[in-house]
Amino acid sequence: MALWATFSHWEKGLRGGGGAKAEEVGMKGVPVALVVALVVQTIGGLVWAGGAAARISALEGKVAQQALVAERLARLEAQGEAMRASLERIERQLEGGKR
After folding, report:
1. Where are the transmembrane segments (predicted)?
2. pLDDT tens-digit series, residues 43-81
3. Domain count along the chain
């Protein structure tokens, strides 16, 4: 109950109702500490978000490079299959000519 009474006196003081002032109640440092804590938390959040954005950008670049590599690999596989088919056709023609 004492805490509520303290808060009521402090609130009346803020409204000009003749209650206790914030300094008298001992609540002067609380708002400042709260503001400092919020500022520190906000700065930490912004730093974290900046780091996350940088990591995401790096990963996007790697994914783009891998897409190009995958496309080239698919082309090389198709060329390899075509060469294998040509080689088999040439071998069949050579075997047919020997007999």
Report:
1. 32-54
2. 999 999 999 999 999 999 999 889 889 999 999 999 999
3. 1
